[in-house]
Design goal:
InterPro entries: HARBI1_dom. Its cofactor is a divalent metal cation. Keywords: Metal-binding. The protein is an alpha/beta fold. The chain is built from 16 helices and eight strands. Strand 1 (79-81) and strand 2 form a beta hairpin. It is globular and about 90 Å long.
Length: 368
């Protein structure tokens, strides 16, 4: 768009004899668009109703009926208006976002489905992404939620104990995940992860026993240690404030040996001469913890775009916002269809409306 403006201005200045011919040709050369032209106008505009159910699940990860529910609870504006005036309806905007993240495709790959140009698709996708994170990102940072109340945490802890018979007050698990990115031009050493031997960003997640991501912190430089990320996240203070039983007893999360031992954060026994009971404890908790680690794989499994490092370009893309968006959408899918973790612990997630606090927000608006 900027090149078109420069070209128009150059033509005007040349016709008015305000610039020399050599300078005019140089400016025209600079404005030449070498990118391939995709005839988006030859394709029909998007219609969800014309899609088969299997197509919808494959391309958007959500059924046709549930996409309408998701649009409603996310409260995406009926008319999405981008900075340059491009417009789209809420349903089309969400579907563009879902298809973009479902697989590491290019915007040109979305043209046959939506009948829009690459710049339009990019603008709409980014606008919806910013809205989703801006409006609902607090669901991944705040413990002040209905499904994280004391009685619910106790229910999760009981389910974990029923499987492990080791730790009676553990309601969730904490871990860090490394997401590879494209090698940046600057600060390469800062984001280089020596353990994985890739340039990467790290995220810290707390996973509840019902399969939902309760807390997400990041992105952080790839070289950072898990204990350092824990300190920067202020997670321990939040756990102390919100994660206690109705009787005031502390409820904890469980992490690997990289984390420090605290009242609300338990870790394996680490000393050399472990007793048989301590070995049994470590083994039992390791077993239930493995069932939760698959959540990290599910984010990339449902939304493979974040797993394709060549598309994760810091400085050019909102890499952290993309991952946060996919984590929120993954929680939405868990609310709709459950998860392997919730099935393992025999726990049901809240409904989609309960998780996004849609009913409460509607009541608040109605009572104003």
């Amino acid at each position: 768009m900027a090149d078109i403006d420069v070209l128009d201005a150059s033509v005007f200045l040349y016709l008015e004899d305000l610039i020399e011919e050599d300078l005019f040709y140089m400016l025209v050369k600079e404005c030449e668009d070498t990118a391939p032209v995709f005839p988006y106008w030859k394709y029909d505009r998007f219609s969800l109703e014309s899609m088969l159910e299997d197509e919808c699940l494959s391309e958007f990860r959500v059924s046709k009926t549930d996409i309408h529910r998701l649009v409603r609870v996310l409260q995406i504006p009926d008319d999405i208006i981008c900075e340059n005036g491009t417009k789209a309806c809420a349903l089309e905007g969400l579907c563009i976002l879902l298809k973009r993240f479902a697989y590491p495709c290019r915007y040109s790959d979305l043209i046959p489905r939506f009948g829009r140009s690459k710049p339009e698709l990019c603008l709409i996708c980014n606008e919806v992404m910013r809205f989703v994170v801006g409006s609902h990102g607090y669901l991944l940072t705040s413990f002040d939620q209905e499904w994280l109340r004391a009685n619910k945490l106790q229910e999760y802890a009981s389910a974990v104990y029923e499987k492990s018979h080791a730790l009676g007050n553990c309601w969730g698990f904490v871990d860090g995940t490394v997401r590879a990115i494209c090698r940046p031009e600057k600060n390469q050493k800062t984001v280089y992860n020596g353990h994985k031997r890739v340039h990467a960003l790290k995220y810290q997640s707390v996973i509840a026993a019902n399969g939902l991501i309760a807390n997400l912190f990041g992105p952080i430089e790839g070289k950072s240690h898990d204990a350092g990320i824990l300190r920067r996240s202020d997670l321990l203070n939040n756990l102390e404030a919100y994660c206690n039983s109705e009787d005031g007893e502390p409820l904890c999360i469980y992490g690997d040996s990289a984390y420090p031992q605290r009242m609300h954060l338990q870790t394996p026994y680490k000393h050399i001469d472990l007793t048989d009971d301590e070995k049994a404890f470590n083994k039992a908790m390791s077993k239930v913890r493995v069932s939760v680690e698959c959540i990290f794989g599910e984010i990339a499994g449902y939304f493979a775009f974040v797993d394709f490092k060549k598309n994760q370009k810091i400085g050019l893309q909102q890499v952290g916002t993309m991952y946060t968006t996919c984590a929120l959408l993954r929680n939405a899918i868990t609310c709709l269809y459950g998860s392997t973790t919730g099935t393992y612990f025999n726990l049901d997630p809240p409904s989609l409306e309960q998780y996004f606090q849609f009913d409460r927000e509607f009541d608040d608006i109605h009572n104003q």
